[in-house]
Amino acid sequence: MSEQTIQPAGFSASLRASLRMFWNGLKMPLLAILSAFVLGGVVILVTSGSFISVYEAYEGMLRGALFKQRGFSESLVATTPYILLSLAVAVGFKSGLFNIGAEGQFYIGAIGAAWAGVAFRGLPAIIHLPLALLAGAIGGAIWASIAGFLKAKTGAHEVISTMMLNYVSFRLSEYLVSGPLRDPAAGLVQTRTIAVEAELWNFHAIPERLQDPLNALAAAVGLALVIAFFTRWYLMSSVRTRDWSRSLRRRYYAAVGAAAAAILYFILPPLTRLWWPFTDTADRLHIGLLLAIGMAIFIWGLLQRTTIGFELRTAGANPNAARYAGVSITRSIITAMAISGGLAGLAGTIEVLGVSSCRCLPVSFSSGYGWDSIGIALLARNHPIGIIASSFLFGAMRNGADLMELTSGVSKYIISLLQALVLLFVAAPTIVRWVYRIKEERQASEAPITRGWGG
Amino acid sequence: MTVKNNASRRFRWQGSWWVTWLIGIFGLVAGWALLNLVIGGQCDGQCVVSTLAQTLRKATPIAFAAFCGLICERAGVVDIGIEGKMLVAAMIGYAVNLFAFQALKEVMPPASAADLARVLALTAAVVSALPLAALHAGLSINIRADQIISGTVINILAIGITGYAYRQFLAENLPAGPGTFPLLNIPILSSIPVLGPILFQQKPLAYILWLSVFLIQYVLFFTPWGLRTRAVGEHPRAADTLGVNVYRMRWTNVLIGGVLAGLGGAWFTLEAVDVFNPLMTNGLGFIGLAAMIFGKWTPFGALIGAFIFGLGDSVTTTISIFRPDIPSQIPQMLPYLLTIIILTGVVGRAIPPAADGKPYEK
């Protein structure tokens, strides 16, 4: 046991405590995943009748997910929408809402992106790309706020109304893609190809994109913002600088950011020309991944460090207390649904702008991400870092399933079974505790709480 | 039980019964008028009768789903895993129908083999929903997991199971099966002019539906068992104090709900179409829950709710026959939009059982 090893002197107790907390948080999800894989192995064994195919299946899945050519980057491609969709579900859970309709909002986001990517022509990427992203996110946000509005004003339960909105959005996207938005020139039923400017950049294309000065400016400003953010964080936590006045700190990190932006603007294009690690032009990995990770951090900050986030969490944890403290439940329900839908819409946007091979929205556009993302959010206990890790797990499984089916003949639907089992063990920790003889921890809340029809 | 219960003394309907009825009739007339408006007055008497018969047919799985939800929620267990149970039942029904027929036709004439296979398949479908119902019961009653999460687990598990089994066993090289149940005409009643074709020229599950709605109404409101069920759903602590075994009542009800969901699932592959495909339930389980809420947690109300959705669905079909120029997706949204509208409470606020969704701790 790691806890019983003698620590060297000077190893701070707080670090040990935080490590133990980290392990305690990680223990149950890891055991749930392990149990699911063991049980999944039993299912493969029973249905195929040989031990070797269990090994072949898992080996094929691992190889497909990580080690085959472009396997790892394809896993990351599949991870991207999972991060955003499960963030959407997690924001709902934190605010006491069960947004089961992330998939529908994903579709609406995809439609918004397909429309905005085509409707504007001749805009520079620095305007067009954010516009297309925003169109999808706003579409998803509005779509989800319908359910939020109905919940707040009439009490229609969000589980049923978002589910119904799912089916409406499937039909709606089918109609729009085969009707008004259809590309008459294409042989397949699909929308027009979006403008090059609206595309999310592939990693291998970044040096080329940066040759455009406006793009270089956008990239420099984006990176400079990140640098400024970290500088600010450093200034607030470092012993030497934490006593600085607020305005001094602000001036300092603003200056660092501006300097970084100026330097990056001039050195990024030639530097990436000289050396760039991503050279494979068939690689589909795109900057949407960075966007998704950035959103995960942003949402975490929003929920934990801002007034809005506090109101949302309070309204989710105890609506009566929140109402008593002066939080408007109506507003917080609609806000939560809008944020949640916006994230799901962003996932759909990214799928159109970055992933789809035709750079358009095809009519047979089925993702099946919706249910999985609920599992991810629960597995991660709504924690953003956990969400990134669990999203990678689910994305890797999804990506590895194809090679698994090819090499072992086990249907790739086994991964939905595995994911369902993971979710089962996460939702019922008692089972896992009983199997592995783990004592119950003293924890105030461990599973996200949804509410019945009444409240 | 020493508690006097008014509801079991006289035939009283829960909730505002007349409002529900009036809205049902109004919806019917308005729907017909709208239909004729859309398709240009081409819907004659024959068309109305066939649309209504179709309504009953399409309402069957929704009504069973609603009854499943009703039975569970009256006992205080929220069940959103109906969809998953129906999906598994549909697949098992289809598979048993197919393979039992292959085995049986070796030993008996094909016609009776087909009949027997279908009955076996129906039974198997109902039984196959029980393990999932038991899982839900175990999770939500004994382990006291969140009931909506538990239902979601059931749904995802069902998608996994059916998808996997379908690709592994049912996707290709299938022998010819015996097909769905044939129409079962009730001898004298089916020759009544208008009502006959609508009510009495149906497939077996439609008759089981009528049977079960009366049965549930009777059992729930006129027997001690029903009284205990409702007590457990309203105030489990009080029921427990009076000696009702809360856990056992809830377990029984969730399992009965499983049987009903199994019947609903069997409809897809044993009555509607002779194929199985993953995700064929299309949200009908959730629509069933909306029908239940619409019916204010009463069997007849839920049935009427189901009829409204069935009507929306069959009108959609009629429209697409007469007006092929309207994109089929637009009318297909109708039932789902209808569900949302009904959920908003335009028919009056529904009050769920007080302990609905709350785990009970002894």
Strand adjacency order, main sheet of chain B: 1-2
Rg of chain B, alpha carbons: 21 Å
Biggest β-sheet of chain A: count, sense, barrel? none
Average pLDDT reading of chain A: 85
| SS element count, helices of chain A | 17
Brief summary of the model shown:
The complex is a heterodimer of chains A (455) and B (362). Chain A has helices at 13-48, 51-67, 71-94, 102-119, 125-154, 158-178, 206-209, 213-237, 246-274, 288-305, 307-317, 319-324, 329-355, 369-379, 384-408, 414-427, 429-436.
Task: Produce the secondary structure layout.
The complex is a heterodimer of chains A (455) and B (362).
Chain A: H1 13-48, H2 51-67, H3 71-94, H4 102-119, H5 125-154, H6 158-178, H7 206-209, H8 213-237, H9 246-274, H10 288-305, H11 307-317, H12 319-324, H13 329-355, H14 369-379, H15 384-408, H16 414-427, H17 429-436
Chain B: H1 17-39, H2 45-74, H3 82-104, H4 110-142, H5 147-170, E1 184-185, H6 195-199, E2 201-202, H7 204-222, H8 224-234, H9 236-241, H10 246-272, H11 284-294, H12 299-322, H13 329-332, H14 334-343
Antiparallel strand pairs in B: 1-2
Task: Describe it.
The complex is a heterodimer of chains A (455) and B (362). Chain A has helices at residues 13-48, 51-67, 71-94, 102-119, 125-154, 158-178, 206-209, 213-237, 246-274, 288-305, 307-317, 319-324, 329-355, 369-379, 384-408, 414-427, 429-436. Mean pLDDT of chain A is 85; it is low at 444-448. In chain A, helix 3 (71-94) runs antiparallel to helix 13 and helix 5 (125-154) packs across helix 6 (158-178). With 455 residues, chain A is an all-alpha fold. Chain A starts with 12 loop residues before the first helix and ends in a 19-residue tail after the last helix. Chain A has 17 helices and no strands. Chain A has a domain at 42-202 and 283-436: Orthogonal Bundle (ABC transporter involved in vitamin B12 uptake, BtuC), CATH 1.10.3470. In chain B, helix 3 packs across helix 10 and helix 4 (110-142) runs antiparallel to helix 10. Mean pLDDT of chain B is 84; it is low at 1-15. The longest helix of chain B has 33 residues, at 110-142. With 362 residues, chain B is mostly helical. Chain B has helices spanning 17-39, 45-74, 82-104, 110-142, 147-170, 195-199, 204-222, 224-234, 236-241, 246-272, 284-294, 299-322, 329-332, 334-343; strands spanning 184-185, 201-202. A two-stranded antiparallel ribbon of chain B has the order 1-2. Chain B has 14 helices and 2 strands. Chain B is globular, with a radius of gyration of 21 Å. Chain B has a domain at 65-281. At the A-B interface, helix 5, helix 6, helix 14 and helix 16 of A face helix 5, helix 11, helix 13 and helix 14 of B.
